Amino acid sequence: MTKTPAANLPRILVFGNEKGGTGKSTLAMHVAVVLLNRGLNVATVDLDTRQGTMTRYAANREAFVERTGKQVPRSLHFILPPPVTRQEGESEFTNILMETSGHDVVVVDTPGHDTPLSHFAHSHADVIVTPINDSLIDLDVLASVDPVKRAILRPSHYSERVWKAKQGRATRDGGSIDWVVVRNRMGQLDARNKRLVGKLLNDLAKRIGFRTADGIAERVIYRELFLDGLTVEDLAVLEDAGTLAMSHVAARQELRSLMSTLGLPEEQIGKKTSGRMRAAV
Fold it and tell me: For the segment 45-60, what is each residue's pLDDT rounded down to a tens digit?
């Protein structure tokens, strides 16, 4: 059955990668909180119920407010358990999109493995964000690399999945998907591996159509704030920004730079995608 979508639709950010341990859920929640602190209406959707990192982050954030009385903005959060059938999962996800039609942004966290529901979510994205650790091991999720020539041989299964998602989106409503590969946990030194990964990503980007962005470094602050459901952006709101440690300031700048690269500056993200029809089957 085809349902008529709302005219005012949010911008949908899908964080996806078939490899775990890339900081996908952490990055998704940090991006969501930056947008919340800018006064936007944000919904978060956790499809990775096995790990449930985003859901625990949201729960920790609620507990922080109850425990301290300090107010921080919270997202409208959904967790979608593994469906019995593919049709059931697609129907539930579609219902969530309709329920969040009045929001500015929907941030979706997908599991680090291949599922039909994750495919469906990818095909509804306006932006797909794929964090990878800055290594040849993580690059393997995007492409096979010739070990002798140090060159791209062929795109991987996940790259093919994103290509199919783009086709599905174009067929359904004529829309397009912006794919951004985020180099997470990059080293500070100009190492040989770092340069090689950068070269291979640039070559692959031209071949299969994605943009690259620098993500967040390996900082203790990102892990410490998890228990309170907070991010470095919250610290600047809850405390005097002038008292933040240099590592906190650097972390905030990393996130702000990423938001700009993703095309999410404050003056643009609030623009509604009115007039665009997203048919849901």
Answer: 999 988 899 999 999 9
